[in-house]
Structures are given as structure tokens and as C-alpha cells.
Amino acid sequence: MSGRAYVGRFAPSPTGPLHAGSLVAALASWLDARAHGGRWLVRIEDVDTPRCVPGAAERILAQLQACALLPDETPVRQTSRGAAYQAALDGLLNAGLAYPCACSRQDIARAQAARGIVHRRHAALPYPGTCRDGLQGRTARAWRLRTDRAAAPLRWTDRAAGPQSQDVEQEVGDFVLRRADGLWAYQLAVVVDDAWQGVSDVVRGQDLLDNTARQILLQQALGVPTPRYLHTPLVLAPDGEKLSKQNGAEAFDESRPGEALSAAARLLGLPLPQSGRGPAELLAGWVEPWRAAWIAPSTIQG
After folding, report:
1. Phi and psi (nearest 5°) for 157?
2. Spatial distance between the Cα atoms of 144 and 135, rounded to a whole number of angstroms
3. What is the C-alpha separation between 242 and 271, in angstroms, rounded?
4. CATH code of the domain occupying 7-79+236-295
5. pTM
6. What is the distance between the alpha carbons of residues 107 and 158, in angstroms, rounded to a whole number?
7. What's domain 82-178's superfamily in CATH?
8. Which pLDDT tens digit goes with each residue over 21-73?
């Protein structure tokens, strides 16, 4: 650990209640904070309002409480943070690190096809930088971060997955900070909020590993610290795909929190606790094994 005080966070999107996979991420984040003697925060990432389900945020907080995963501060909702995101975007625009973009998805596909790049199913097309030098009389739809100002490839080390690298300009392109529908993009919101809350360590599911390079580039552009990252194993559905709300994952049963926590701990490789104990006792019994097993890097096996 560096000299920074440890601050961790769990940041669910209220698109539905927590399921077995999201409980793994919550437990991992909570235990890592406790093992380091740090603080643990909960942030409701409701910036994508069309996808949010009424009552889901309240259900998520109730599920965490049932499992004795209690944050050290009152949870924050991203929908209250719009002014901070606007200030960050304004700073990037003034520094020449962001720009307005008029391109639709069809425009991007045509531009890449002209370069011989074929759109693969389920894969996002890298943005080719069409509007970097101006809108050419068109109307702005979104705002993007320039990815051609940083050294490539970007390299970092994940505490579980080890050394990582990504050429963001080639693999992703200039990515969106504010969307065409006026909503703030996840990448900007999460970076601004992590910096504001002093987050030192991000512990989250392995499905978010690919986001890390973009977030580090944005942290560098904004001049804010880069947290350490640790990505945990995923819970898989019977078809081998990631268990998620999109593929019908059911909420875990908060009336039986001990069973839900034990299943999550099993995936993380923690020793199984004795049966018949309440959530608070289970968690207390896991902090020391976590401290011993997880402080060293690259000890979590995906």
C-alpha cells in the first residue's frame, strides 16, 4: 500500500436488485477495505436514468444492510452530481483535451468501413477522430475525450490480473464524456466521483477491467490521482456467460444473507465459515483471512 489513506467503494447501478455476482463484488470491496483498515463507501450510479428501475436503489441498500455490509458514510447518488461533471467537462474543453462531436453511430460505421474496418457483432467500433478538428458546420451531439495526447500503449498493473496494457486510441478511440441524449457518460462520472470521494482502491468485477485504461487516461487529463485496481472473478450463468441483470439473473435472497455471503466467499476463495452464524459474525471472521491472503498482489485467481 502507498501512503494514501485507504478508501474503497461499491458502486452499483440501480437497474435492478443485487444478484449473486454483484454480491461478490460488494463483499470483495468491503473486505478489502476492512483488511486495510480503511473506509468503505457506497455510491448509487444512477447517471443512466432511462435504465434505472424505480425502487431498485432502495432495494440494493436494504440487501447490503441485510448482509451487514454497511458503508461508513451516507450513500451518494450520481444524479446529484451534475454540476461537478459539467465543471470537469468545461476544464477538459478549455484545455483542448475534449471536443464536441456530431457523429452518429452510422457515421462512425461508414468512416471505419472506408478504412477497411468491419464492424464485428457485439463489439464497439473505435471512434476515428472525425470531429477532432471541428464540426464542419454540423451540430454537436456528444462530447469526447482526445486519446491521441497520451503515450501508447497505456500500461498499468491490476492487483489480481497483473500487468495490463491497452492502446486506447486504436482499440477504443476518442470516447464519449457526455452523450447525445444529454446524459453524462459512465467514464466521466465514475472518474470525477472517485476523485471527489478520495477513492484509493477500486475493487470490482472482472467485466469492468476493459474500462480501466479509459479511466486512467481521463484521470491523467483531469490531473487527479489514479486508484489501485483489483478485478474479481465473475459469477457465470449456466450458459457460461456473465451472470447479469441483462440475462435474467435473480436477486439473491436477503432473508437468507448467511447463505448468500457464504456463496460469494466461496467464489473468492475464502475459507467457509461455520454454519448458523449471522452476517456480522461471518464478516468479522473473514477479515483476518482476507488480510493474510489478499494484501499481496495477484493472489486472487479468476
Report:
1. -120, 125
2. 12
3. 24
4. 3.40.50.620
5. 0.91
6. 35
7. Glutamyl-tRNA Synthetase; Domain 3 (3.90.800.10)
8. 899 999 999 999 999 999 999 999 999 999 999 999 999 999 999 999 999 99
Whether 27 and 60 have beta carbons less than 8 Å apart is answered as no
Binding residues for L-glutamate: 9-13, 45, 186, 204
Residue 242 a catalytic site member: no
Q: Which residues are annotated as a binding site?
A: 9-13, 45, 101, 103, 127, 131, 186, 204, 245
Domain definitions of the chain by residue range: 7-79+236-295, 82-178
Tell me whether residue 15 is exposed, middle or buried, using C-beta atoms within 10 angstroms of its C-beta: 0 to 12, 13 to 18, 19 or more.
Answer: middle
| From 194, 245, 251, 261, the catalytic residue | 245
d(CA 218, CA 190): 10
Cα–Cα distance, 215 to 205 (Å, whole number): 15
Q: Are strands 39-44 and 7-10 parallel, antiparallel or unpaired?
A: parallel
